[in-house]
Amino acid sequence: MQQEQTNNGGRSRANQTRKGMLTNLQRGETLLEARGITKRFPGVTANDAIDFSIRAGEIHAVLGENGAGKTTLMKILFGQYQPDEGQIFIAGQPVDFKSPLDAIELGIGMVHQHRKLIPAHTVIENIILGHPNAGAVLNLSRAEDEVNRLCEKYDFSLDLRAKVWQLSEGEKQLVEILKALYRGAEILIMDEPSSALTPVETEKLLDSIQAMAESDLAIVPFITHKLPIVLRISDRVTVLRRGKVVSCIDTRDATEKSLAKEMVGREVLFRVERTKIERGAPILEVENLSVRSDKGFIAVDQLSFSIHEGEILGVAGISGNGQRELVEALAGLRKIEGGKITLEGQDITYANALHRWQAGVGYIPADRIAMGSIGDFNLVENTAMNYYFDEAFSKRGILDFKQIRELTTELVEEYDVATPGVDVKARTLSGGNLQKLILARVLSRKPRLVIVDLPTQGLDVGATEFVRNKLVEAKQGRASVLLISEDLDEIMSLSDWVAPIYEGRFMGKLPADSTPREVVGAMMAGIELDKQGAAT
Amino acid sequence: MQEFLIRSLDASTIFTIAALGELIGQRSGILNVGVEGVMLFGATLGFITATTTGSYMLGFLLAIAIGGLLGLLHGFFSITLGGDQVVSGMGIWILGFGLTTYIGSPFAGPLGLPRIPSVFGLSPFFFLGIALTAIVWFVLSRTNLGLRIRSVGENPVVAEVSGISVTKTRYLCVVTAGMFMGLAGAIFSLDYNPVWAYNFVMGWGFIALALVFFSMWNPIILIGGSLLFGSLWQVSLNPQLLLPDLMSRYIWRTVPFTITLVMLLLMSTRWFRTKWGATKPEALGQAYVKEG
Amino acid sequence: MRIGRPTLKLQKRVYLSGWRAASISILAILVALLLFSLIFLLAGINPLTAYEEIFSYAFDNPFGLPITLNRFVFLLLCTCAFILPYKAGLWNIGMTGQFYIGSLAVYGVLLGLGFRGSEPVNIAPGFVILLMVAASMVSGALYGAIAGFFKGKLNTNEIVVTMMLNFIAFWLVSYMIKEGGPFMNPGGRGESFEMAASLRPPTFFNVPFTIFLALGFAFLLYFLLKRTKLGYQIRAFGLNPTAAEYAGVNHVSIPVLVFLLGGALAGLAGYHYFAAVPGVFKIARNYAFFGDLAFYGIICGLISQGNPLASIPVAFLFGGMSVGGRYVQGKLGMSFGVDFALMGVLMITLVAFQFFYRYRVVFSNPQKENPDARILD
Amino acid sequence: MHRQNSVSRLFLITILLVVMGMLTTMCAPAAEPEPEEPGEAQVDETITLAIEHFSVIEGTTWSGAHDRAGKRLEEAYENVEYVFREEVGPDLTVPYAEEMISDGADIVIGNAEFMGLPLQEIAEKYPDVYFGSIIASDLTTKQNFIRLFPRQYQALYLEGLVAAALTETGSIGIVSAFPSVQVIRRQNGFILGVQDGAELLGKEIDIYVKYVGDWYLPTEERDIAETLITQYNVDVLTQQTDSGSPLDVATEQGIWFVGKDMDIVGFYGWSDTETVAISFDTRWEVLYDQMIKEFVGGVENPETILYLGMESSMTLADGTEVYTVDIMNDNKVGVDAISPSALPLIPQEIVDMVDQAREEMIAGTWDPFTAHAFVSNGTGLALEGLPIPDAGTVVKEADVVPTNEFLLSEFAFDLEGVTILE
After folding, report:
1. Residues spanned by the domain of D53
2. SS3 content of chain C, % helix, strand, coil (to 5)
3. Torsion-angle region of residue A515: left (phi > 0), alpha (psi -120 to 50) or beta?
4. Which one of A60, A515, B33, D275 counts the least CB within 10 Å of its CB?
5. Interface test with A, best of C1, C12, C15, C232 (most A CBs within 10 A)
6. Yes or no, beta carbons of B108 and D271 under 8 Å apart
7. What is the arithmetic mean of pLDDT over A507-527?
8. Which has the closest alpha carbon to A108: A2, A185, A56?
9. Given the DSSP bridges, would you call strands D374-380 and D394-396 parallel, antiparallel or unpaired?
């Protein structure tokens, strides 16, 4: 035991002496190596003897379906998790991260998929949070100078005194990158960096990443599901499946198809068949709808549109442009400022959420955990969320749980929800299965209007395919669908109409099959375009 | 009138110090509804120590120590064990009320020590209260430690990945908070009303708790709230000095609470929140369990 | 770190069997009693003797048991008053105030009907009793609903609001029963006028009929939460308000409703203690004592984890402890406050043991688990 | 799943309770029986006096005095045993009483008026037991249900004389609970004393009464005492409340304090004679003694209203004779009770007057309430059917003996000359 303690002490001394060692490395040398990393959670082995390495100057993508173990591996590399087995080496030296602090000290920075920022604090406060040289009494102006220098170097522009909640998603990501760089990161781990960014912002980000990799030896393993981005930017790609490394190849040897096959383990169809349904009567009509955000400003601005029977209207936009407010106003969860909402000729402007469910609105929220389900309820009780008010399932105020249970069992089967049974708590389901359950619950009500917000965010390829097909099925069932998504591919492939949204207004309502992708992308960024795609 | 003000200020001091403690804890995300219990412990043990040893200093030190210890206990329940903070706080209150009643009973009566001398006619603790408010304000808004505390209270996950130990920071805060509350209790029993009596803090801890919500987690507003409540308390006891024959003395006694209630409601309105940007620590009351 | 020493590992429980939960509670109570033995030992008393006195007086004594039962009814009502909002994720710290207001309403009915201490004429006493019960519940409900309404409408912290309402109600009672107040005792001695003897409700073994009401409400509440649409909405709202709202649960009416119903039960506790328990029959001078006792409803609610049925034995135990603790102090000549201290120690131990509902302790042997001792430098 | 959970938990807890119950019952016979003291085989002749104290004993003047009375009787008579219960609420009154009776209590006293009604109701059930209850205003009795109260106003009158002599500012303050017959009657005794003293010395004296709202609110009592001193220039303070806070304020501010109900300097040592100029002591033992004597004498129809004053007394175990009430301070009685530090400040004529009035009251030849007219101040407590007489109304002429009933249940107006602060 004594010997081990000495070793412990020795190790932390070694950690210290190696501080800053990464700067002396040459391009192409192996910076970080992980050997035989295994991490078990109760019931699953998230990482199974993973070998992984990063070379100086490379952009290394890590691909994998949800649950493949990408995030776990990155958290291990960042010291958030400690591996059960295996060893990490930095510049050939074994290291042992007890906490992210150890990793940060050795020059590893992380940009998380879910922003690790504090919205109530200012940009500069977020950047200096936890910085070892922040000093006991904060010297904000000195820190600002230093961060501004970094901004100049990489050509970022940011108001450092702004509160983070006021920033766009792209700016928030910038804050995270700056925070990592300010802490001296030489290896930058980015988890799903382009999710929630506009195409324009994504382009800019990819440029920055490349610039960083080239000019500064900032090393960027890059995790994503988005194959085009992987192909475009990375030098090497490691594919994980079920906690194991399936392959690690140079990107130039890979194709979209080959990567997808390795990720999923079978051939994947990327196109959902778009079926044209005969245009029916309008289901949802919205006139001059205005809605305020939580912060009190107008988030949805005099919006008017309609969706007909059997149509999917795709609202393309970067989050924060009023989609959330729009959806919540339609679902009856947010007070509207003005305007009128009609569902099949019935004025539901002032109907509450319950009445709207009963009137035939079906809403599939973006946040499956916080809004779409109740984690401590079992699957039966979760199904009841959309059925408790149904006369068929209750008598004189007493719920018929037996009947709801039968329904749940059926739905679980029909929608292929992987679960040991309907009595488990919803929180035990994976993201994809949870989404399937929600989808099953809502769509089984045969709603006339389906509002679906970010339906495939964070889902793996298989689940995404399933969800998209179900939406198309709903459309074929002559429902009208309002699809909110940030994923332009999803919008373009599913929708009949595309409405790019920018600052609470639709930039247009365009037929999906005849509008170039770039046009929509530009409109999402707020650029007014005529039909030909030229800026006006 | 001057004496009337002095009494108001003396009472405010106790509210301020107890509430400051609670504020520090809440800023780090730990809600302690057991302020009353910690104050009772501080007051009773401080009193017993002072009256048996004859030393004020020992009394205050012990009160602060027991406050810190109870803070540690609350921390253990809510940080290490990840239990519900309201449950733990309630437990501490009930324990405080119960044990101090038993322990203190044999010591019922006046303290029997010469009074702590006043400074410019005011209790020296008034100045301590002001100083502590200034210090807490400075630490929370201007120092690295303060930034850490606020971050831990807003979003412990973010703080942790930024290399801050959520556990350590929260423990630091919750123990400091307990020390403040213990001190407030001792000021009550050694300076404000140095006579031990059964359950004698009589709800002041709960008022301190309400003041923290009232202050919107800002030490400066907090001291304003304490002064307001201290004055209202005195007015309600002595309505004849300001507004004679207005209403029954019993109804007067409800006034401080009614006004607090009205102010709280006002602060809850959208108008007030958008105008003043009231910021509740986002992670308040939530246990943080480190992953992995 | 796990290297080289056998460690205690904590595992989150996926499932907690009823037996295990019950044995944890019992273990907690035993540990609390063990801890409290220290206090008896310090006072030079054999803890076994002390506990024997406590338990036999509280649960097996013709004089003690009725007190226990009366306290039990009171606590059970307060516990249920706490549980309902608790299930909706809200904290009712205002049982005290609701109880005070309920008591006032009972005497308000008597005053309104002109039975200020005099016998009712022309009205059947049973009807007056019914009116009193109804008044206590309605008024408690309305007073409780204030907090629910502001929570739902403005999202004002309900803990603070109910606390303030407690203080206000406390002084309102003083106003009503003292110094020319409408309910003042004819002798003006700081308590309300006495209820006419004919209005005393039937008792069973010195316990008024309210025991059946309380038990009935506990069962009803259990059924409400478990089986009804409303109960489902309440539970959904309590576990995840955002999701509940999404599912069409009204975020104003649920808080109002749970506080309304909770307040009604706490108000009924006012009828129980001040108009039904033998020997009282007035708003007592020490009404604050009962106000403080109402707080123990919070503890019982927490220990029974929001389950109204589980709260029955818990309230019974705490009712008995408060009675037995007080008794043993007088009997064994200890200094005042044994009962409060005993309940405090019970409370804090149970808080600590809450942990074991969620985690289990696993001993792990590092030699087996980590054959590579990871000596790496 | 959850349902099963809770049901079996409930079940288990019930089992636990049953098991605990069984354990205790099984233990009960095994537990050693109360060892009977060998000398006291003549169990029948032992008189057990049981007192239900409405409050805590330790550190209180009211229950503390009752407790001391019980102990003194135990000492004075070999065959008297004293048992008690503390902090007895209304719901506990009857069960505790019945339990103590089943353990052999012969006389059961409730030391607060709220215990009167419940005790009165069980009186017929236990014809062989005497019950006693404090009077605050209720005078109903039964054959074995006795109402008792000491004439504390006599001692308060004497205190008033001393207070009048001590005030330099001409302001005397009373921290008082809330208007009630008992409080007002006692205050009136004090007021008459102050007024007689002022007349004798040719002083102008204001008496301020400020109500706290309840008997026991330590913080508020302190705050109100401070107000009286700082806003009304009071330099002699007394109280009609129960906490030690007003005394502490007087000590702190260096003004004179006049005590009540018990000799706190001598008995609790809470203060000293530098602060407490005079206090009075209530010897409940004199009242209980009378009950015990009647009980032992087998009196079937004992006196049911005991309103005893300084003319009644008993002899304690150490041979001292104590009167029902008396001025007392630092274990000294009579004029000796006046604080040695205060004495030099008090004109001899006042000291003489105190001494003389005390002697006459002990002899039963004089009583302040008989000697003085009752002139209404127009303030006080309006009782049902008893409105407060208009200011200046002479309710009772001088030298007319007021009935006990009037004093105990109707004397609810303040005497002229006092200022009641809101």
Report:
1. 47-150+284-315
2. 70, 5, 25
3. beta
4. A515
5. C232
6. no
7. 80
8. A185
9. antiparallel
Q: How far apart are CA A88 and CA A33, in angstroms?
A: 6
Question: How do the pLDDT tens digits run along chain C, 377 residues long?
Answer: 344 455 666 666 656 666 777 788 888 889 999 999 999 999 899 999 999 999 999 999 889 999 999 999 999 999 999 999 999 999 999 999 999 999 999 999 999 998 887 787 788 889 999 999 999 999 999 999 999 999 999 888 898 899 999 999 999 999 999 888 899 988 788 889 989 889 999 888 888 999 999 999 999 999 999 999 999 999 999 999 999 999 999 999 999 999 999 999 999 999 999 999 988 889 988 898 899 899 889 888 888 888 899 899 999 999 999 899 988 888 888 888 888 888 889 888 888 887 777 777 766 554 444 333 332 22
**Chains sharing 3 or more CB pairs under 8 A with chain A:** B, C
Say if D38 falls within a structural domain.
no
Token pair recorded at residue B203: 């709800």
Total domains in chain C come to 1
Residue D382 Cα, gap to closest chain C Cα (Å): 6
Of D217, D222, D230, the CB nearest to B3: D230
Residue C50 included in any domain: no
- Contact between D358 and D334 under an 8 Å Cβ cutoff? The reply is yes
Tokens found for residue C79:
């516990």
* CA separation for the pair A118, A172 (Å, rounded): 10
Domain contains C256: yes
pTM of the complete model: 0.86
D150: closest CA among D139, D136, D138?
D136
Looking at the structure, do residues D238 and D172 belong to the same domain, yes or no? yes
Domain of residue C236: give its range. 73-307
Q: Which domains occur in chain A, in start order?
A: 11-262 (3.40.50.300), 282-524 (3.40.50.300)
Domain boundaries, chain B: 2-276
State the nearest Cα–Cα gap between A377 and chain C, in angstroms.
8
Say if A94 is an interface residue toward chain C (CB within 8 Å). Answer: yes
Amino acid at residue number A35: R
* DSSP character string of C82-121: HHHHHHTT-----HHHHHHHHHHHHHHHHHHTT-SSSPP-
Chain C touching partners, 3 or more CB pairs below 8 A: A, B, D
Which residue in this structure is represented by tokens 């309940």? Answer: C343
Q: Are D93 and D101 in contact (CB under 8 A)?
A: no
Q: Give pLDDT tens digits for A113-126.
A: 777 888 888 899 99
3-state class (DSSP) for residue D310: coil
The answer to whether the CB atoms of B108 and D60 lie below 8 A apart is yes
Q: What is the CATH number of domain B2-276?
A: 1.10.3470.10
Task: Look at residue C105 and tell me if it is in a domain.
Answer: yes
To test the contact with chain D by mutation, choose from C215, C280, C292 the residue with the greatest count of D C-beta atoms within 10 A, namely: C280
Provide, for chain B, the percentages of residues in helix, strand and coil under a 3-state DSSP scheme, each rounded to the nearest 5: 75, 0, 25
Per the DSSP assignment, residues forming a β-bridge with A62 are: A223, A238
Chain B residues 240-279 with a CB less than 8 Å from chain D = 240-241, 244-245, 249-250, 253
Which DSSP category does C274 fall into?
A: I
| Number of structural domains chain D divides into | 2
Confidence at A110, pLDDT banded by 50, 70, 90: confident
